[in-house]
Amino acid sequence: MPATHASKTKKARKVAETADAIALLKADHRAVETLFAAYEEASGKAQKSKLAQQICMELSIHTMIEEELLYPACRGETDEDLLDEAYVEHDGAKTLIAELMNGSPDDEFYDAKVKVLSEMIKHHVKEEEQRDGLFAQAKNADIDLDDLGKRLADRKQELKAHFKETGIPTPTTRSMKGAELEHGQPLED
Ligand SMILES: [Fe+2]
Ligand SMILES: [Fe+2]
């Protein structure tokens, strides 16, 4: 029988209390995959809106703790190109997170933005988790993953509590410079 959303979330929380850095981050990946799957199944706009907000919250915190703690620890220890790509992939996801945070399921393209975000995250998670990916390289590097795991868990708790009060902040990019775009409409024949 497939695990329910609630039991998966409970499992993710348990992992987070005890896990090293990689186990904690992988548990985050599974949690957000569950939310994306729930969005695919959702039909009502209220439910979609709630799930999209949860996805944005999870991804905002996850990208922040990786950028504050994991990625700096990886610099000089793992493949440089892979790490640079990870920052750009995070920033690409943040543009869609910002779109979702400033939109609603009533908007044209909203479902498509959630779907494309899920596909971008799927690709990024693969790059982190695959054999010889960033996580595997971090495991083989001179990084104390137990200590890093504790710091990731602490920071995650802190941000979660903070954002519950303040709402999800505007994402901060690390590689993209916010070059201006012209907003048009899809063209007709
Ligand atoms: Fe990640
Ligand atoms: Fe990442």
Q: TL;DR of this structure?
A:
The chain has 189 residues and is mostly helical. Helices cover 72% and strands 0% of the residues.
What would you note in describing this structure?
With 189 residues, the protein is mainly alpha-helical. It starts with a helix and ends in a 23-residue tail after the last helix. It has one domain. 72% of the residues lie in helices and 0% in strands. The radius of gyration is 17 Å and the shape is globular. One fe (ii) ion binds at residues 66, 86, 90, 124, 128.
Key attributes of the depicted protein:
189 residues; mainly alpha; 7 helices; 72% helix; 0% strand; binds fe (ii) ion
Q: What hetero molecules are in the model?
A: fe (ii) ion
The largest pleated sheet is described as: none
* Count of individual beta strands: 0
Average pLDDT works out at 93
- Integer tally of domains: 1
List unreliable stretches of 5+ residues. Answer: none
Any idea what the radius of gyration is? 17 Å
| SSE pattern, N- to C-terminal | HHHHHHH
